[in-house]
Design brief:
globular; 5-stranded mixed beta sheet; inorganic pyrophosphatase (n-terminal core); 11 helices; Diaminopimelate Epimerase, Chain A, domain 1; homodimer; binds manganese (II) ion; 6-stranded parallel beta sheet
Chain lengths: ~325, ~325
Amino acid sequence: MKVYVVGHMNPDTDSVCSAIVFSYLLNKWKEKDGLIKIDGEAVPVIQGEPNPETKFVLEKFGVEKPEIIEDVEGKTIALVDFSEKAQAPKNIEKAEIIAIVDHHKIGDITTPNPILFVNLPVGCTATVLKKLFDWSGVEIPKELAGLMLASILSDTVIFKSATTTELDKEAAKELAKIAGIENIEEFGIEVKAKLSAVDELSARDIILRDFKDFDMSGNKVGIGQIELVDLKLIEGRKEEILEELKKMKEEGGYHTVALMLTDIIKEGTELLVVTDDASVIEKAFGKKLEGNSVWLEGVMSRKKQVVPPLENAFSS
Amino acid sequence: MKVYVVGHMNPDTDSVCSAIVFSYLLNKWKEKDGLIKIDGEAVPVIQGEPNPETKFVLEKFGVEKPEIIEDVEGKTIALVDFSEKAQAPKNIEKAEIIAIVDHHKIGDITTPNPILFVNLPVGCTATVLKKLFDWSGVEIPKELAGLMLASILSDTVIFKSATTTELDKEAAKELAKIAGIENIEEFGIEVKAKLSAVDELSARDIILRDFKDFDMSGNKVGIGQIELVDLKLIEGRKEEILEELKKMKEEGGYHTVALMLTDIIKEGTELLVVTDDASVIEKAFGKKLEGNSVWLEGVMSRKKQVVPPLENAFSS
Ligand SMILES: [Mn+2]
Ligand SMILES: [Mn+2]
């Protein structure tokens, strides 16, 4: 009986690599003193095609892309990088879950029997897996160390995300040594650059890559975000993007549509805005729009740094 | 801001001792490299008066009984030995949960933020805590090692429960060394004997300590269980208990009322039975009642070894 190790929907680098890495560890635990012992062989699977960043990482370290799985009815499974039913494969309630390794809030998945569930409040599942290797005395192969390092750099935005902890930094340092990566920062930029490749995307694709609607005091507000290693990568596309934002505003009946162009190296965001009332932006961020744009120094997070001040500006 | 560490309702030895032990570890983690860092001081609390076994253990190792807590509204808390809302203190949904350490099935408690959640499929929460001490390089004080050893012996019924793992046995061995306990088995019997003290209990109390009703093919069946280190402890009370079972049968309209007198050392159960149809017992267990009693060699679990054969006997 196989154990399928699977990450969340819309897989990111951490959820794909952690499935590969935890499969390896579960198989090792069959021989050595593991925290749990599985019967069959553990195999990594994914819930969809990997993104360009993940593909680059797998190729760089010569690791095969896992098979795609959609339905887990009747299967024995382990979860990495999520513990919520909403992010699970089809028929998760008809699968037997034997382990969960994660770093998010505790989700709504329950089990009928005791299982291994290790969740730590750190920046990346790979950091938790690094601990599990250490704690059970299993050596990390060079290529898997590479995948884990890339996952940490991806999830923590090269240690710049507010979710980053000392444990992530320590793990990254040790993993880089095993993987033979000399400059961690440089490698991080190389990894993150893969999702910065916007040349082949339409303006609409760029806006919609990560786009969310909000109701702010009765006004429909849409905010997209794209993370880039350098805003120059998108410089020549801004006019085109603004035209598209205007179209979207009319089509969707928005009060405001905005796109965050976040520079993960400079640590700031250029906000492109099309709005019925520019004073809202000034109220929210204490800076005037120049044309349709404003630079927000230090702003990296939509959830924590853009939505709350905007909501306040609308409600006051 | 204090962090209240609390075990489940109807506290057993593991849930009381694990609250004390995890509080100590959380406080140590403030100084050393911990897996999480809390702000205030961690203090153990309990959801009700400890049972005689737990009281004996606390006294033996000179550890103070934790305060009782009923409502956790607005409090910062950590959970040990459970992850289900049904076993939580009042207003758990209005508390901030910062950590869970457990060894049961994964319950329905969710969190809005990432937290430490370490659950292992082992016999006792103290075994998981032993791992957390080892993994973070914190030394276990002698008296806490005693509490942890007692918890393991209590939860695993001196390693006889089906939930016992190699990790529990290893942990117990190392803890016994730290606590200065030479004979683990003997100490286990001493611990378990405290709940075997039936002298001060009425016959009805003995029957009802752990009593459950079942519907078996339309017949009302009640089965109680009491675990004893030696059946001699209850020998002189059997007639009285049988009289009480007869009364309960009439009062409650039962087809069958039974009490399992489980000898945890000999690993078997004397079943006292009052029934409308003795043939059901014979069908279920392949042995005839002698008077109102039958010895079932190797039977320790109501859930796994008594209810299923009885249900089969009723339905066939
Ligand atoms: Mn992740
Ligand atoms: Mn327990």
